[in-house]
Specification:
This protein is of the alpha+beta class and about 425 residues long. Helix content is about 45%, strand content about 10%. It starts with 9 loop residues before the first helix and ends with a helix. Pfam families: Portal_Mu.
Length: about 425
């Protein structure tokens, strides 16, 4: 398929991308394969990346996205990102009727699939990268021969979020308007460059400190050995013996040779010079992502860690879940409806189950106390607490009742006191 210089017309874009419905190809099939920038990053490259992304007429995100991809290749950064993602992804969700609040089994079954968890992960990736452009296509499962949904992510470096463009080459001139394609969802986080941007300098300085420490260890980790002699004819022989001394820790030297071992491994206190600097940057990296440094710090005590875990679960993760809920309800459901699936955001809504924030024991206590004043549905109690309720126990105070009728909640809870 040929593309004109500069902007491809909407008709051409739709024709090019709508073939995905017929051939199971996605919008990214038109993107040219390119190499990413894997060279060493510094503060100057970070500033250039922000300048390119902020360009008033031709914003380009290739430099910034290559920089972000390189920055997250760090053990500490990866761990705190996984912790934050898990605080949301490990939370149960469901689709409920807007009017009644009842859970909708058919819709829940359709979402409880691998593709939807991939979609949720892509939503959280938008926090780091500032944005994510996703296309949903249908393809035939090679095993079951049934249609299934596939989530396609447009490479971050090819996207210009301001103009809604997908460049065929990250730094080229040809592009299409990705919103002209069918079943495309644009996720745009409110941050200017993504939540990781503020800590990119810390990651760069941390890597510099680790590299400098490695060079220091290479130079001074093994003690420096010198020898002095008054016989110039013995210099070559002594040099050879010093090499052997470094490996075997013993040597036979000519008479009059003076040997000195210079232990510089602790010169300048490398722990304070390098290790403390690395720890400081790790702390700064943790705070904007998970809210504290103690959850990944071996020196943190239990009480502090538990407090900071509640900060993550009750504040940061709650905000992330609200962000995802808006995307699913306002963008994903209309796309699924257009694809012929039974979703309608005017009649149903996607929600995270907030009752999971309460422990099972606390939830049982609350329900037990409510049963003193209200009649509760035994089917709901059995399902919520996984209890094999088969009927109401007759305590002798009242005649037996038909199990099919809604019993008094007090009688139901007599079994568990």
């Amino acid at each position: 398929m040929s593309f004109k210089k500069r902007k491809v017309s909407p008709v051409q874009a739709v024709q090019a991308i709508s073939t995905a419905k017929k051939t199971d190809e996605s919008i990214i099939s038109t993107i040219v394969a390119e190499f990413k920038d894997r060279t060493r990053k510094d503060i100057q490259k970070w500033r250039k990346a922000m300048t390119a992304a902020e360009h008033p007429t031709e914003p380009r995100w290739g430099l910034m996205q290559d920089l972000i991809d390189d920055m997250i290749v760090d053990g500490h950064v990866e761990s705190v990102l996984l912790i934050r993602d898990a605080a949301t992804l490990n939370h149960r969700f469901y689709v409920a009727d807007i009017t009644t609040g009842d859970q909708l089994d058919e819709q829940n079954l359709l979402l409880n699939k691998q593709w939807f968890y991939k979609f949720l992960e892509d939503c959280l990736d938008a926090l780091v990268h500032k944005y994510n452009v996703i296309q949903l296509i249908t393809e035939v499962d090679p095993i079951t021969k049934e249609d299934k949904i596939k989530v396609i992510t447009v490479p971050y470096r090819n996207v210009s979020i301001k103009d809604q463009r997908m460049y065929l080459e990250a730094y080229g001139d040809k592009y299409v308007n990705y919103m002209d394609a069918p079943n495309v969802i644009e996720i745009n986080h409110r941050s200017k460059f993504g939540i990781i941007n503020s800590i990119i300098p810390n990651i760069i300085w941390k890597r510099n400190a680790m590299q400098a420490w490695a060079e220091f260890s290479e130079k001074f980790g093994m003690p420096l050995i010198t020898a002095t002699t008054a016989n110039r004819n013995d210099i070559k022989r002594i040099e050879s013996m010093l090499r052997q001394l470094g490996e075997a820790a013993q040597a036979v030297m000519p008479h009059g040779t003076d040997i000195k071992i210079h232990d510089l491994a602790n010169a300048g206190n490398p722990v304070n010079t390098y290790e403390k600097q690395i720890r400081l940057h790790d702390e700064q990296i943790s705070k904007p992502i998970v809210g504290s440094a103690t959850m990944t710090d071996t020196a943190g005590n239990r009480s502090q860690t538990e407090v900071h875990e509640r900060t993550l679960d009750d504040k940061i993760a709650t905000n992330d879940k609200r962000f995802i809920s808006f995307i699913v309800n306002d963008q994903l459901f209309p796309v699924l409806q257009a694809m012929g699936l039974p979703f309608d955001n005017t009649k149903m809504k996607f929600v995270f189950d907030e009752t999971e924030a309460m422990s099972l024991a606390a939830h049982w206590k609350m329900v037990n106390e409510a049963s003193e004043k209200y009649d509760l549905d035994p089917e709901w109690v059995a399902k919520t607490f996984n209890l094999p309720i088969i009927g109401i126990k007759n305590t002798g105070n009242e005649p037996p009742k038909d199990n099919k009728k809604s019993p008094k909640a007090k009688g139901l809870f007599e079994n568990f006191r």
